[in-house]
Amino acid sequence: MPELPEVETVRRGLAAHILGEQIQQVSVYHPRVLRHDDRHPHDVSARLAGLRISGVHRRGKFLWLRFSDQPLLVNHDWTDQFLTTLVGESKIVRASQHIAAQATADRASVRLGSSSSAVLAGQPDGNIAPGIAEDAGGGSQQTVAEVLLVHLGMSGQMLIEDPNRGDDSPFAHHPHRRATMTFTSGRQVHFIDQRTFGYWHLDQAVPSTGAVGRLGVPRRVAHIAPDLCEADLDIDRVAARLKQRGAALKPLLLDQQIIAGIGNIYADEMLWSAQLHPLQSAQRVSHKRLVTLLGCGQTIMRRAIAAGGTSFDDLYVNVNGESGYFDVTLEAYGRTDKPCSRCGTPLTRQVVGGRSSHYCATCQRRY
């Protein structure tokens, strides 16, 4: 399954190609694509038609598209605080009770009424993030912003096709094409998914934790934790949560409600880098070493993203169909019986929590 670096690579590719594009239609070719949506595919397509892409976001292994001219909830926890939003080249809008502020760069404003909630409203240029909007007077009526959640599953690909390919399109009769989003410019995004574990879901945006959460996340994934690449991640707090658990480190790193985005590959790489055994009890590891483990994870994630992720086969590719090359630098995952680059000991493979784990028995001693 694509992990954080692979999904982030796809997110960046989509953002480079479809920001500002207006959806003309969505065609669904396989029922599993919208299996989490109660609506008929035609109704989903009709709801999306005419919307303009204003953002491509990610948390952990999930990404989603947001659309222009939708409101953002500012709840009472944010009053008298600085709310940072992506408003073109702009900066910060200060939200506080009974004041009105103006971000002149994009003519975005914060309106506060008698309650401690507010609406950040944007102009049709679409640079304001979606959320749940409550009326400024504190009433109960709500306007629910929607986002399109995309989960790649085991083999999902979001492939860009430039306009005017016509009969020359390699996707016209692709056996694993599950859905296509067509824009008014003629550009298309094809969802290719051989194993059909991936899906699209038109979902409500709800507030969640962290800066990403304040912009609104799909309700379906609101329960997952922030990931290692979020700028405001509190590593000390995550380390403390790990230490509170009596379980082994490897399963804890895979728990998306503790820290999101880590899968089998990067868990093994993190543990190797921090010289910790995958079966080591988290409670017996010092807080300092757990912080180091998470720091190793951040470094590895950044390097993997720079390399376009890890591709062992053609099931994971970026939006241009190109494979990542981080696999050539892996130190532990998939290297059974190969020498550890630190000490030369042949690496060991062991099943931990139903997953294959790769580690050095010399460098990563269990205690």
UniProtKB/TrEMBL annotation:
Matching SUPFAM superfamilies: Glucocorticoid receptor-like (DNA-binding domain), N-terminal domain of MutM-like DNA repair proteins, S13-like H2TH domain
TM annotation in the entry: none
Signal sequence, start to end: none
Binding note for cofactor: Binds 1 zinc ion per subunit.
Chain sites annotated for binding DNA: 176, 195, 245
Cofactors, names only: Zn(2+)
The EC number(s) this enzyme carries: 3.2.2.23, 4.2.99.18
Residue positions of the active site: 2 (schiff-base intermediate with dna), 3 (proton donor), 61 (proton donor), 355 (proton donor)
Subunit field text: Monomer.
Name the UniProt record assigns to this protein: Formamidopyrimidine-DNA glycosylase
Natural source organism: Corynebacterium choanae
Upper taxonomic lineage: Bacteria, Bacillati, Actinomycetota, Actinomycetes, Mycobacteriales
